[in-house]
Here is the input.
Amino acid sequence: MNMAGKKKGVTPVQPPSARPAYSDDTLAEVMRSGRDTSGRILDTIMPRYLLEDKDMSILIAYLKNLAYEYSPGIDNYNINFATIITDEVHVDQVEAMMKLLESFVTSANKQQVDYEAQLVKLRETRREPTYRRVKLSRWLLKGPPGTWQSQLETYYRKEPVFALIGGITSKSWKPVHEFSEAHMLPCILPITDFPVVSATDWYTLYFSKGYFQEGEAAASFLASQDQDIKSKKIVQIVRNTPQGQALSEGFMQGLNDKVVPLPSTIMVAPNESLDGESLKRLLDKEKPDILALWTDDSLLRAFMEDSVPIELPATLLISSGYFGSKIWSIPEKMRSAAYITYPYRLPQDESRYDRLFTSTMKQPNSDEIRRIKSKTMASLRVLTQALKEMRGDFFRDYLFDTISMMQDLELPLYERLSFGPEQRYASKGCYVVQLSKGEKPDLIKKSDWVIH
Here is the structure.
């Protein structure tokens, strides 16, 4: 006669015997040999780590710092996110981002409702939470950046979140970046041209280094094209704005180990204009072989003044980010000398994604609105894939660990978004292009995508 609770022919699984707690030494031993403190041999599915003492101590320190409770913003039924918007951003740009974020929330919560309904139909109860209800808060930051920190602290005290997703500003992201670092709060792909460029900070994943990356790419392009670059006279005209300063900083850092001496810098005040005569005197004095124009398009007028013939340098560097749509107005007489940094997929190649941006409005999306939508789509793709692969292990550091293991993504706007351990800038490339001839020019590649 069988004992109650047993099935004939089935041997019940015995739980492992109790073992003494691990010390650093015994934990190192079990990870190396697979033998625990009670002498039991662990299953072969458990990897063995044949590490030197120094590396083993680092691994043990890492294990000790792993969280054993869910991160803030998570419980068994809900996961809370926030997105950050600063008050100077145009309403159309905010709407372009928010519509996609809100659509993501609606879709995610529908999955949760459908899952619960399926459990009811099957007369089952939920053992482990598979779907959580998603909540997205909008944190609006008002006033100068110096006041953002206190506003963020107020929002966070009232409503802790698991991560920041997207977000948009035309200003520097630095106050938000520092807030994320202080609270160990992941921030996934905010829309900003002014990220913090750091090799050590951890908690913000950016699309790129922004304007800094254009300047850095220009420097790498020069070095790759001209073996004799150290003998060339390089001058940069820098408008004293955040855009000009970031371009100049990236350019100078990129040239730091390639050029001696470093380029001469001519600063131009934010609202200062140079006429043709002033520009001619400047160029006659400096006689640059290479001239970097880290300004907006207003300086083009000085080059185009017929009354003051200006001899162009052999190479003219221009930022498409700073010029914007005005790159298309560069006159033909300058095009053979003008090399333009372009941090996105070229327009003629990007057209294959047009179907994603069909609008119900009569007016098509502007380039800026389309870029905001592209970036928001990318941030949601990364977040959705990461949450799926986390399989309910909702710890903030593990979110970044999961993202770092993702394969490269091919999405609208960027040629490639790539991830890896401790990498915090997903797009690492930038084209250098020239304009073709004619009234409706194309962009012609003069470099590969990854050039720095």
